[in-house]
Amino acid sequence: EPEVTQTPSHQVTQMGQEVILRCVPISNHLYFYWYRQILGQKVEFLVSFYNNEISEKSEIFDDQFSVERPDGSNFTLKIRSTKLEDSAMYFCASNGGFSGANVLTFGAGSRLTVL
Amino acid sequence: AQSVTQPDIHITVSEGASLELRCNYSYGATPYLFWYVQSPGQGLQLLLKYFSGDTLVQGIKGFEAEFKRSQSSFNLRKPSVHWSDAAEYFCAVGAQGAGSYQLTFGKGTKLSVIP
Asked: Which residue of B has its CA nearest to A40?
């Protein structure tokens, strides 16, 4: 079964550092997403991406966040200057294609710890 | 805006006992409803979904859920729980955005299974 792959599984960084989280969505999917889950809280939508541009973003997705699809397979989330409150599990997801367009497939997540 | 409430933060059941996890949603139109499961260290795995039609939907691992419009509920059930079902369960409602598809999640219910 096709999978969404995320790397790294866990990253520890110092406050103020830049972090890049990587994702390989399912190959024939058209929409790509980032969600995050702060420990003990809900999984929250950050951003969606389609046709090489942001489709929608939440109020959480401020100027310190950016997304990019640098090549035909990777989808990245960059946090420019990390804050303590960015510590969370970040999930990549994708959907679209010839079937199951309304079903998101999630990756295993990247846990970010900001010290 | 849509919202999802999962009233039970943590539920403990004995192996072999039946299970019902509650989910209530708020959404203006006919909702797309989902249950996802997250095992420790794993991503979000889709258990089942409701789009339309039969209000009782079957999912993987022996789970089922019933959509009750009058109660705005989409409770998850399993007749006999296995130890491997211990995980966190998330109910979600889906909405088509400007070009993408967004999920709004509940806070999750953690299931513990006593041998």
From this structure: B107
